[in-house]
Amino acid sequence: MLKRPKLTVASSFVIFFLLGCRPSVPNGATEAVTLMTKYSRMGRYDDALKLAQEWLKQHPDDDSHTSFLYQQIAFTYLSKAIKDTAHKDKWIQEAVAYFDRDLSVHQNTDADIELYVVGSGFESAGRYSTANSCVYYGRAIKSFEDERPFIQGDTVTIEGTTVKLAPLRQGNERAVERAKAEFASAGCK
Q1: Rounded distance, CA 13 to CA 10, Å?
Q2: End residue of a domain, out of 72, 106, 140
Q3: Domain end call among 39, 71, 106
Q4: DSSP alpha helices (H): ranges in the chain?
Q5: pLDDT digits (tens, 9 = 90+) for 165-182
Q6: Which of 94, 140, 107 has its CA nearest to residue 121?
Q7: Cβ 70 vs Cβ 98: under 8 Å
Q8: Which 8-state DSSP code applies to residue 177?
Q9: Whole-number Cα distances in Å, 76 to 55, 109, 148, 152, 183
Q10: pTM value?
Q11: What percent of the chain has pLDDT over 70?
């Protein structure tokens, strides 16, 4: 009679740990972003980044979500930079690279806040960078200024919801002024 080896408690734990603790990749982009956010809030930045990068690999033809996931990856790298100060400039450079990827694939629409969002990312990069603050503040200012044509008019209707554009314009103008003040405060020219 053949004897089967018994799994010990220790080997069961090892198998569970190695297979059960990896972040699984949801099929939907919304679920992936939700899980990324959960991991980031727990300080599990590497898991959040791996999950998003794996989702992008598994859905190479899903152009409708690529831009947004690049944006989420960039903000996750910024969060990681804030926590890992020893390597913060490395993580900030990664964040900026993903903001650039986001801009390269994003398709502008009539009322579009993409440049505002990316500008906010560049502004944060400037705030936390020790080496390239001026470059990032400059890019933030340009992004905010380039946003202006996309938020003109009174309202826009997006998927059946009417949105007033005046508050978006006001927020964008405050962002331009704030980034210019940070640029000047950092001694940038």
Answers
A1: 5
A2: 106
A3: 106
A4: 9-20, 29-41, 45-58, 63-83, 88-105, 114-128, 133-147, 166-185
A5: 999 999 999 999 999 999
A6: 140
A7: yes
A8: H
A9: 15, 25, 26, 31, 24
A10: 0.84
A11: 88
| Confidence at 23, pLDDT banded by 50, 70, 90 | low
Find tokens 């009539």 and name the residue.
110
Q: For residue 55, what are the contacts with CB-CB under 8 A and spacing of at least 6?
A: 25, 26, 29, 32, 69
Based on the fold, state whether residues 121 and 175 are members of the same structural domain: yes
Containing domain of residue 93, as a range? Answer: 28-106
pLDDT, tens digit, for every residue of 33-57?
A: 999 999 999 999 999 999 999 999 9
Residues 155-165, mean pLDDT to the nearest whole number: 88
**What phi and psi values does residue 156 have, to the nearest 5 degrees?**
-140, 145
Q: Please give the tally of structural domains in the chain.
A: 2
Among 167, 147, 78, 151, CA closest to 106: 147
Give just the sign of the alpha carbon dihedral 70, 43, 175, 139: negative
